[in-house]
Amino acid sequence: MAPRLAFQVLGPLKVSADGRPLLLRSARQRAVLVLLLLTPGRPVSVEALAEAVWHGDPPATARNQIAICVSALRKTFRDEAGVDDLIETLLPGYVLHSEGHYVDVADLYESAAAARAAVEAGNAAEAAARFEHALALCSGPVLDGVDGGALSGTAGRITELRTNLIEEYATLRLGQGHYRSAVECLAPVVAEHPLRENARAILMRAYHLSGRRSEALDCYREGRRVLVAELGVEPGPELREAHREVLEDDGWTAAVPGAVTPDAAPDTAHDAAPTSVPVPVAVRRRMPLPPEPFVGREAELRLLERLVPMAPGRTSGATAGVVAIRGPAGVGKSALALHWADRAAEHFPDGRLYLDLGDPRGPGGHGPAEAALEQALRALGIPGTSVPADPVDRAALYHAALDGRRLLVVLDDARSLEQIRPLLPGRGPARALVTSRDPLHGLAGTADAVRVDLDVMSRAECLDLLAATIGEHRVAAEPDAAERLVDLCDRLPLALRVIATRLLSDHRWSLRQMAARVEDRRERVSTLSPGESGVRSSVWLGYRALPMRAARLYRQLSMLDVPDFPSWIGVPVLGVTPEVSERLLHQLVGARLLDVRPAHGGTNRFRFQEVMRRFARERCLAEDDEQEREQTLERVLNAVLSVVYAAQEQLYGRGETPHSCPQSPEPVPGETVSELVADPIEWFEGEREALGALVVQAVREGRTKRAWLLAVGMVPFYEIRNYLEDWRRTAECALEGARRAGDTRGAGTMLRSLGTLAIYQRRYEEARERLLTALSYLERSDDTQGRAIVRRNLAVCARFYGDLTEAARYCEESLTLFRRSGDNSGLSHALGLLAQIEIEQGDPERGVELSNQAIQVSYEAGSLRSRTQNLYRLAEALLGAGRPVQAERVCHDVVGLARGQGDRLGEAHGLCALGEAQWRQHRPHKARASLLLALRLAEEVGDRFLQARIVTHLACADAVRGGTGAGEPLDWALEEFRTLNAPLWERRVGRLREALESHDAVHPIEGAFLACLLADR
User: Fold this and answer.
1) Which element (helix H / strand E) includes 607?
2) Which of 138, 381, 686, 820 could form a disulfide with 281 if both were Cys (CB 3.0 to 4.6 A apart)?
3) Which residues contact residue 53 at a Cβ distance below 8 angstroms, ignoring those fewer than 6 apart?
C-alpha cells in the first residue's frame, strides 16, 4: 500500500510520507507545489504557476521550466513515497489530487466550518474543541519560506481566517465564562492588529468580566489613540458600545449574587441587593391572542424551546436568556413569538409580559425605552408613584423586580438593540423573546443570546395555512389557483392570512378569481391591506424609519423593472459614491425592505419581494414627480451602457463600440468600472437578466436608442455563452421599438444583429435576407462601421454556400469600410475571414499571411477575443498548407485563450482543429481525446454543424489508427450537413465515406490521403 502523504503549509512548508520527511530542494518546486495544494482538484494554468514562480515576470522558457518542476515533483513522490498519481496534466496546466492524503489547510477549512456549525447549533463544547484544533494547526506564518508573489494574497486570506477564528473562539469562551482564556487568546491579536475594532471590543469585555476594569478602559484608550493617529477616525459603534458597558457596568457584570464564574471570583460590588424595592405582584399585562391557525415553523419552534428556564437541580443544558426573531415585514415574526409564548406558558409561572415596541401609540412608540420601562414596571405591580423619573434608576428597578422570577418578556417589533437593552432581563430565570426587522448585531456577542432568522414559509407550509383557514376542500378543488395565490403573496404569512380571511368572509370568491385580482399589480398592495392593517401597514413601519437618502433610493429603485440590482446602482440613481450606495442598500436590507444574495465574484445583489416593490412604487408615485422618475431611468440606462461597452472593449478592444454610444452625465467612477469588468464575461453573467429587462423597459418608455445600443452591446456575451434565445428576444424587442420610433439606424443595427444570430444558428438563408434588409436601412445612415459588419457577415453566408468569389468581394468591401471607420477589431475579424476564403480557393500560404496580419491588427485593437479567433484561423490555414506541427502549437494557444475567457464554443473549435492536427501527424489516440472533449463542449452549446465536423474528424482518427471510421457516425454527420444546407462539407464527407468503405479495415490509412479528401472542393 502506498504511503499516505502529508502536506503542511500553515507555517514552513513540510512534506512527509507516513511521518518521514521528504525534502524539496528547489524553491521553484516548492512554489509550484504550494499553488497546486491550495487549489486541490482544480486545474491550475501554466500561466498562474509561472506567475507564482517568477512574480509576474516569467522568462520566455517559463512553460518548459514549469514542466521540468512538475516532472521533478512527480519523480520525488514516485521514488520517495511510491505515489504516482498525485499530479495530473490537465489543460490548461496541472491538477493535484489530494484524495487519500492529508493537507493541513483543507483540515483548517473543515474544522472552521465545523466549529461555526456547532456554534449555530448551540453545542459550545464541540465548537470549542473544533476551534482549538483549527488554531493548533498554524505553526507559524502561513507559507513561511515560500517565495511567490502570486501566493501572497492566498497567504493573507488564510491569515485573516485564522485571526477571525481567534475572535470567534474568544467570543465563545467569553460566553462559557472563561474570561481569562478569552484574554489570553485576544491580547496578542490586538497587539499585532491594533486597528481591529471587533477584537479590541471582545478583549475589553473579557478584561471587564475578569474584574480588570482599569485594563479594559486602558484597552479602549489605546485603541482610540491608534485609530485617530493612523486613520483619523473615532472608534466605531461596537467599540464605543463596549466602552459604555464598562463605564456603566450594565449587564456584562450583573452576575447572580454569590455566584463564582470559572475564571473569576465574585465582584462584591454586586452582592448588595437594591433597597426599597416595592414587592412585585402578579403580572397584569395580558398577552395578545396568537393568530389561528398556526402551521409549520417546526425548526424555529425547536430553537425557541431554549428559552425554557433550567429545571431546579439541573446544572447543564442548552438554554438561552434571549431569543431574537429577525425577518422582513409580514414574515410572521409576531405570530411565531405569540404562538410559542402561549404554548410555553406553563414554564413561566410568574407570568408573561408583552410590550409592543412598534406601535407608535403604545409604550415603545419606536422611541427610547423609558416609556416601555414604565409600562413594564406597572405591569409588574410597581405603583406609578414608585416609578423613578431617571432612566437609569428606572432600569435598575425593572431588573430588581425581575430578579428570581420565572417570567417571559415579549418585546415585539423592536427597532434597535439600544431600544431593548434596558428591557432585557439579564441573569436569572426570566427570559426575553424579541422580534425585530433590525439585525440586532450587538446580541451576537452575548453568550446566552440566540438569533432566529425567519424567512418566508415554504410552499407546502403556505398551502397548509391556506387549507387550515378556508378549508382543505376549497384548496383541493383549485390546486393551481391556490399555488398561484401563494406565489403572488411572496409566501409571506401576513399576506396569505389577509387573502384567506377575505376568502373566508365571502364564499362567492373562488381562489381563481382572487388570484386574478391579486395578479393586477396596481391592486395588489390594496388587496393585501384591508383598512389600515395588512401588508401596507407592516411595511410602512420600516419605511418611515429610513433616513431620507435611503428612502429615496428605495422609491426610485422600485421604478426599475429589473429582477435585482448591483451594489453600485445608487451611483446613477442618487449621484453618490459606490461605497455610499452599498451602505444605503445594506440599510434597506437591515430594515428588511430589500433582500440580498451573494453573486458572481463575491459581490452582492439586492432584490425586492414583489409586494415590497408595489409598496415602494406607491410611495414613489406619491412623493416623487414624473420628471425625477424619468431622469433616474435615463441616468441608469446611460451608466449601464457605459459599463456594458467597457466590458465589450475588454473582449473586442477599441473600435467595436458604436461611435454614438452616449456617455452618462454622472458616470460610474473609472476605477469602479475597471473593477466591475475585470472579468467581463462574469460581469455579464451576473447582470444578464437585469440587462435584458432594461432593454424591455427602455422600449416601453420610448428610449429606443438606449434599448438597441444596450441590446447590441450584449451580443459578445450571448455569443460566448451561447445564450441565443436571450439574443433573439432582446434584439427583436429593440427592433420593434426602433421601427415604431422611425429610428433607421437602430432598425438596421438590430436586423444586422438578428442576421448574425441566424449565422450562429446555421440558418444562412434567413441570415442573408436579414442582412440585406439591414444594409438597405444602414445605407441611409452615416453608420460606416455598421455597413462594414453587414458586408463581412454577408461574406460568411456566401462562403457557406460555396460562392467564394462573392464572399471575397463582400470581404474586401468590408475591409475598406472598417479601415475608414477606425474599427481595428472588425478589421482583424474580416482579415481572418478573408484568410479562410483564400485557403478554400486553393491558396493556403496567402491564408497564412492574412491570418498573421489579422493577429497583428487584433493586438493593435487590444482585443483578446479577436486574437483568439484569428489564431484559430491561422491554425486552419496552417492545416490547409500541410503544416500540422505548427498548427498544433497554435491550437494549444487557442484552447488556452478561449478557456480563459469562458468561451466554450471557441474552446470546442480549438479542440476540433487540435484533433485534426494530431491525426494528420499519425497520433490517433491523442486526436480522439481532443475530439471527444470538443464534441462534449459542442453538444453543451448546441452547435450541430461543429458536432458534425468533429464526428468527421473522429472517423479520420479511427481510420489512421486502423479502424474503418465508417458506419453510423459518418452517416449522421452526412445527414446533418445535408439538413444544414452545407454542400461543401456534404461533398467532403461523401468522398470520405466512399473511401473508407472501399478500404481494407485491417490496415491504417495515411493521414495525408484523408487530408486531401477533406481539402478538395
Assistant:
1) strand 604-607
2) 381
3) 28, 31, 32, 62, 65, 66, 69, 148
Contact 970, 929 (CB under 8 A): no
Instruction: Give CA 616 to chain center in angstroms.
Output: 25
Say if CB 314 and CB 429 are below 8 A apart.
Answer: no
Q: How many CA atoms lie within 13 A of 555 on its CB side?
A: 22
Give the CA distances from residue 156 to residues 12, 142, 162, in Å, rounded to whole numbers and listed in that order: 15, 8, 10
Mean pLDDT, rounded, of the chain: 80
What is the spatial distance between Cα 511 and Cα 516, in angstroms, rounded to a whole number?
A: 9
Helices (H), 901-982: 904-920, 924-941, 944-961, 968-979
Q: Are 663 and 706 in contact (CB under 8 A)?
A: no
- pLDDT tens, residue by residue, 907-959: 999 999 999 999 999 999 999 999 999 999 988 888 888 999 999 999 989 88
Q: Which pLDDT does position 619 carry in this prediction?
A: 82
| Closest alpha carbon to 611 in 524, 550, 498, 542 | 524
Distance of alpha carbon 568 from its chain centroid, rounded?
15
Helices (H), 862-923: 864-880, 884-900, 904-920
Residue bearing cell 397548509: 464
Residues 391 and 370 sit within 8 Å (Cβ to Cβ): yes
Query: What's residue 547's pLDDT?
Result: 84
- Alpha helix ranges (H) inside 122-255: 124-136, 152-176, 179-192, 197-209, 213-231, 237-248
Amino acid at 644: V
How far apart, in whole angstroms, are the C-alpha atoms of residue 510 and residue 508? 6
Distances (CA, A) of 850 to 36, 542, 828: 40, 65, 10
Q: Where are the alpha helices (DSSP H) in 548-595?
A: 548-557, 570-574, 578-590
| CA separation for the pair 707, 719 (Å, rounded) | 19
Rounded-to-integer distance, Cα 437 and Cα 416, Å: 9
Axis-axis angle for helices 534-544, 493-505 (nearest 10):
150
- For residues 514 and 528, give the distance between their C-alpha atoms in angstroms, rounded to a whole number: 11
Helices (H) and strands (E) in the chain, counts: 46, 15
- Here the cell at position 63 is 512553460
Residues 6 or more apart whose Cβ sits within 8 Å of residue 243: 204, 217, 220, 235
Closest CA to 251 of 17, 524, 447, 477: 447
| 613 and 524 Cβ atoms separated by less than 8 Å | no
Residue type present at position 132:
E
d(CA 999, CA 965): 10
pTM, full prediction: 0.53
| DSSP-based three-state secondary structure for 880 | helix
- Euclidean distance between CA atoms 595 and 602, whole angstroms: 16
CB 169 within 8 A of CB 135: yes
> CA-to-CA distance for 131 and 171, rounded, in angstroms?
11
State how far the Cα of 885 lies from the Cα of 959, in Å rounded to an integer: 20
What's the mean pLDDT in 468-485? 82
- Whether the CB-CB separation of 958 and 923 falls below 8 Å is answered with no
Instruction: Say how many C-beta atoms besides its own lie within 10 A of residue 745's C-beta.
Output: 19
CA dihedral over 979, 983, 987, 988, signed as positive or negative: negative
- Residue 423 CA to residue 398 CA, distance in Å, equals 8
The pLDDT of residue 586: 85
CA gap 362, 405 in Å, rounded? 25
Identify any residues that bridge with 17 across adjacent strands, giving them in sequence order.
5, 20
The x, y and z cell numbers of residue 685, run together, are 453573467
Radius of gyration of the chain (CA): 35
HSE-CB at 770 with a 13 A cutoff on CA atoms is 24
Angle at the Cα of 265 (from 262 to 268), degrees rounded to 5? 145
C-alpha cell at 776: 438597405
Three-class SS of residue 102? strand
Bridge partners, residue 606, by sequence:
565, 596
169-198 pLDDT, tens per residue? 888 888 877 888 888 888 888 888 888 888
